[in-house]
Every structure is written in structure tokens, then in C-alpha cells.
């Protein structure tokens, strides 16, 4: 008899029926009914921007246990706030409540379902989160613990910085990128990712939003293997309802219910500020017009790092260690992907219990969780090495051998290394070539001016951030509109093209606007320095009107001419006598309605040609005020040269420390920033504490300087630079060599780009690499050709060859700098023809240089600064540079002293606190000079007088004659070829009769 096993027949049928029933339920309802209900919650606050929910609201009846510390959870923009309560037992709010905490959730809702929601920007979310903190603090009386996932964690960081950690106990972030360019998803290179993000922000998401289905697909495409595997597993188990139910809520959340739309403005701002410009790291991101930096966070931070997280990659997440140096930053490393950090079995077993322990520890009610530790210092360099592709594949399928993985990893690293330099070169070439090409096309009749370039930038990027001051940001569009309004006001009071208008204003946005408005009108801005003889400035500049601000109004009223007051707003009181306004002596520009001004027929915006006079600046020479005329060509050469040499782009922020009335601020800082389309940060003055604070607040990447300006910062005893800093470049002219070394050491890995330009801008040199301290670099491409004419220093003559042409100076041979003009020639310039070839035209400068074996130029000094001693020629600059590099030397100067008809070369040095130098130091330093002789005498002085531009001056030292003998004075002994201490007997001999040979 045959024993029939009916289960062999019925089991497949039952499985097929169960599959059909469950599949029909999924098709009809979107998933299986689990019977789960959301955790109880109460809406505490409801406004158009968000709802604030309190889960498991406390029972206020007497005798109830106290409520634990409040935890405010923040979801990312593309994901529903229900992510915190996917399942009651294993969800975040349930676990935290069971641990005795007080969970709160901010719900931004679906922007496509809220009126005006698709116009939300990033700042709206951060401001809303800050307001929610106030509400939670008022309701609970306790400081709030932030918990954010992915972009929600970024919101937490940003809101904590925005509030300067006020009422915030700690920040917990899950897979939240900070240094976004350190490791982009899918292994995208940093240079490419930044460029693509910038393009998408400006040209795609300014007109396009992301619906919820697109957000879901984008997230799933980040890990297509895992997505496909999950769907296959679901179909294979569709017959087994009990096996599917525990993960069904999570599956439904990820497949459909958990995704919400993104507003275009918010995406655009995210891409531009935090990917293209990486301002979570550099600082200087704008929240409702206020500049914010993560260095303002002082509360403890816990960052959860997913070992195989391809979105919030470990290198990117760990950027918080450098971005928030004033916080204690901890990390918890979990073997999970991006979503697995917060939802799922691993999150329930590791993540949320750790968060509960963390909150109790920070609140003083527990011990430090065992699985967290202080985050180690992270390298500043981007290595393009986030979560390796091989690691992601291993996590997704788990079946590839270690040998194959090692081979794939090695091949990928080789390709990355081979292409990194090519990518960088390509990006920089695309950025700089158009500027150099435009610079090379300048001629007398080219229309170019400050006002014109600002107009172009406002047209190309109207919402681009331009001007930073007092913690606020102003866009190109806003500044350009203000400039046009001031132009109308100037026309209304009678200013015309070509008029010379004095600008006597403090360094602030209104001063920049005034200068740019005069440029747009075609007038000449005469930049008056408040610390000089203003009457002389008016006379030398032939000023007809004076633009001033309320601060300088009293000084301006003492000068001849009409006074125009700009800045301070419409409601400010100028405190003037009635007759001053009635008689027209003072005109309040803020009272003029620009819309009521009818533009005359002669007005054309930005009429300035390259040859036209644009600005007049003032400097001091031997105690006398000297006017420097700056044409549009001269301004453009410096502006385009700075932007090209420093590779300035929209990611940069240029920090202008010098007042706007100084030519370096006009030519380098403002000029380079405008041409580069970068942000420019104006400062109220140089103070070490303010310097560090503003560098971080504004995210300064490029610092402009003049001469020894930065000495006040790096040599200040209180100067401390903890953690990360955004500075990549210092750019300016005249930095002493010793200070150069100290700046590079303090701000590593930043370097110095030293500029040199003649007054007329015909010759421009730049030390782009910054490797050779003291070098002026090489000629700037597009700025005109330069050459060195061989020079006879003894007779002050340019040498010619036997054909009558100027002889070119050889390597390490001092020569006169000659420039071949490509623009308008200054009428006062020394023009030479037939210099190196028949009929060629060159301009002879007063500067002496030599060229080393690599073709780099080094300044020897001016033709008038050569000290012709009994021993031979002493060139001041190489001596000063060599002495400045001696360990312990602060500043150095070299000058000539006339003694009984003979010149003696003297160098004076100041020392750093506690430092000493020896005669051997001097001998060794001078021996290393490639050209010229060392000084006859070197002495230590307590301090050197600095000019208003921080340039060391020698007039007082020269007037004092030969230094006194002492322990800190030395003379050069020709017989021993070394420096020895200057004794009274030797000094007497020097001042009595200076002989060749042994002194």
C-alpha cells in the first residue's frame, strides 16, 4: 500500500495562495498591515514652517516621576520626520523614552503641501530649528540635546553655531557630512564635485524642485545593490507573512512613505554653500544675512560614523573635529550604511542606547559610554579617498575575495593619483585663462573700470555674496543697486564725468559704494587719508567736492568745497546747524530720492577707458605727502593679476585689512575680489583677537597684507589658532622675510604670494609658488614683458653692448628692471627706444633686480638706495632679507650714513622677545647673499618706526648717524671676513677716517 504525503501537494499550493494574498495586499495598500500604531505625541507648536511634537507627553499630576533631559530630533529635508518612529519598539523615540529621556521632534512637513513651502531656503530651516530650541527650553527648563540624521545633523551643527551654543547641551549627528569635499558620494572627485554643485545651484535648482519620488530614487541609487537585494528578498519571502512583518514598517518607509519633496532654493543653497564652497569647514556661511562659523560651537559633540556609509563618508563626517575646535568632539563607529545608523536592528541595539547613555553622561547622571572616544585630529588635505568602492561592494554582496579587493583598491588608487594633478590643472586653467586673455587685450581704448566689473558680476551672479561687514552679508545685486542709487544722487548734486571728488570715509560698505559709484559715473575718486594733512590732499588732488560719512563730517566741513554725506541710513541725525544744509554747504545724500532723479542725456554708465585717470591715492615720502595717480589700466592690471595669480573664485573670501583709502586695498583686495567674483570682507581695523574671530566667522581663504602688517597678529602673545582655519593664501607686497616664515608656520598649510608692481603697472611680478621666501617671483602673464638691463652700480649706468643695444643682465647679476608697455604710458615715465632691438619701446624703472638660475626675480632695491661704500656696493634689499631670516630677528632695515664724504652701510634689526643674535649669525647670513656686500655695521634697536602702511622707516635712524658701540652692535672686519663686536675704539676710527681694508 502506498503512503501518500499530501503535504507535498498542499504546501506549494498554500505557498502560492499566501503569496497571492500578501501580494494583493501590498498592491492594494502599499504594504502589509502590521497593526502597529505610532507613539503617542502632542503638537506643542504649529507654525507654517514646522510642527514641534513632544512624544510621550509627561503626566503633570502630582507624584509622577520627573521628566528626563529633552532631546530634539531633526530630520533631513528629503525624509519625513516619521523616521524617528518607524516602529514603536525599535524606533528612536520609543527607545529614548524607555531610557528616561524626553524626546521631541521638529517636523518641517512636506513643502509641496504647504503654501510657500517650495520657496523655502536653507536658512529658513536653521532659523526655525533655533526657534524650536527656545520653545523646548521654555517648556522644560533644561538645555536641549540636538540629535540629527544626515542633513538634519548638518542643521544641528549650523543652528548650534547660529545660536553660539546658547541653551544647547550637546549635538549628536548621524552620518552628517561636514568636510563635504573630503569624500563625496560615489567617489566623485572634489574638484569635479564642487564645479558640478556650483553649476547645478546656479542653473538647475534655481528653477527646479525635487519631488518626493525623485528624492526616493536618488537615495536608492546611492546603493543600487542593496536596494535590489532588499526587493528580491521581499519577493522571495512574500509567502511568509510572519517573517516579513518585523521589517515591514521600515520597508514601507524606505519604499514610499518616508520621502518628501525638496524645495529648489534650499537645494541650491545647500549645493553652493556646503558643497561647492565647503563652508561648513571654512566658516562664513550666511544664515538670514548673518555670517556663521562652526567654531562658535562650544557644546560637546558626538558624531556617529558608518564604516560603509557612502553618503556621510567617514572622512567627511570627521571633518567636524577641525571645523569645531572649541568643542569636545567624540565619535562612535558602527559597521553600518547611511540609513542603518538610525533605523533597523543595529540602530536599536547600538545607536540609540549609546545616545541615551551619552545624554545621561552629559547631564551628569551617568558614565561615559564605552563605545565612544574622542575623535582624533584629522588631516587637512583632501585625499579623494572616501569609502572605497571595494568596501561598498564587499558590504553589499559580501562574496568577493580579499585578493580581488586588494587588486581593485590598488588600481583605483593608482588612477586617482594619476588624474588628481590633471584635474586640478584643468580646473585652474579654465578659471585663469579668460582673465589672462582679457588682461592681455587691454589697450588705451578698452572700456574697463571698477564700476564696470561690479556691473558684470551683478549681471552674472545677482544673488552671489559680495560684501561682508560686521557679521552681515550683501549680495552683488544689492550692492550694485546701491551704487546706481548713489550715482543718481551724485548727478543730482552736479557731479559729472571727469570731476575729482574726495572720499573721506571710514572703511565700511558705504565707502566702497562711494568709490564704485564715482567709477561708474566716470569721475575720479581722490582717496583721502584721515591721518594726513587733509588740506594738502584737497590741493594735490584738485578736489571739487568731498564725499564723507557722519564720522568724518566735522573734518570735511573744515575743507573748501561742497560736502556730500553718505552712509548711516536715512534716520540718522547729522547734528548740523540749519544754515549748513540750507546754504548747500553740506548735502545729505541719503535724503535724495534716486527714483526722482532724471538721468541727463550725457550719462553713460561705466564710461571709463583704460587710459583714463580713475583714482588718486596718497603716500608719504620723506615726510611729504605725495599724490599717486592710478589709471583704469593700472587698476585692471593689479585686479586681474591678483585674481589670476591667486586663482580666486566664488568659493573664496578675501579679507581686506587695509583701509580702502590705501592703494593696496583698492588694487589688490577689492580689485582681485571683484574680478574673481569672490566675497570681500571689510574689517574695522587690525587687532589680533578680531583677526582670528573674523577669519573664522567669514570663512576667509585669502588675506591681503602690506609690509609688516601681519606682525601684529602672529607676534601677539595672546595669538592662538586652535584647530582648523580656512586661510589658504596671504597676498600682498613687502612682507619681511622673517615674518614670512612665522606666518607660514602659524597658518600652515597656507602660503604667501608676494607681489611687486611698478607705480604705473607696466611691470608686475608675482611669487606664485611662495617657496622662495623673499623672491618677487616671475612676470605675470598678460601684464607685459619685463627684462633686466645690465647695470653699473658704481657709475649708475645701464650697460650697452658693442652694437649699442642694452646688455641683458646675466644670472645673479644686478640689472635695471625694464618694462615693455602694453597699455597707456605715464607721461612722467622714462621711455627708452631702441633698447634691445631697433624701434622697440621700453620703460626704465628705478628698481634693481637680479635673476636666479630658475628665472625668479629678486629685488635688490632702488637705484637711489645703493650704498657705495669703500668696500664696494651694498644693495639694501638682499641684506635686509638675509638678516631677517636669522633666527630671533623680528625686523631689519638697511640704509646709508654719510661720514666725512664716505658712505657707510648700516643695518638695524629688532629681536623677538627673549631672542639674541651673535656675530657668527651675521657672518653666516651675509655670506649666503648671491649679490652685493654685507653692511659695514649691524646693530640691535628696541623698535623700528612703521609707516601707516606698516613699512619700516629709516629716516630717524639715518639722522642718528653711526650707532653707538655696545654688546649689540657689530662691524665687518674685512681682514677676517667676519663680523666682530663694535667697540668704542673701532667706532671712533670709523667716524674719524673710514679706510679700505681692516677697520
UniProtKB/TrEMBL annotation:
Gene3D superfamilies per record: alpha/beta hydrolase, N-terminal domain of ligase-like
Domain AB hydrolase-1 positions: 100-342
GO CC field: plasma membrane
Keywords recorded for this protein, A-Z: ATP-binding, Ligase, Nucleotide-binding
GO terms assigned for molecular function: ATP binding; long-chain fatty acid transmembrane transporter activity; long-chain fatty acid-CoA ligase activity
Pfam families: Abhydrolase_1, AMP-binding
GO biological process: long-chain fatty acid import into cell
Matching NCBIfam families: PRK07868.1
Protein name as it appears in the record: Long-chain acyl-CoA synthase
Taxonomic lineage from the root: Bacteria, Bacillati, Actinomycetota, Actinomycetes, Mycobacteriales
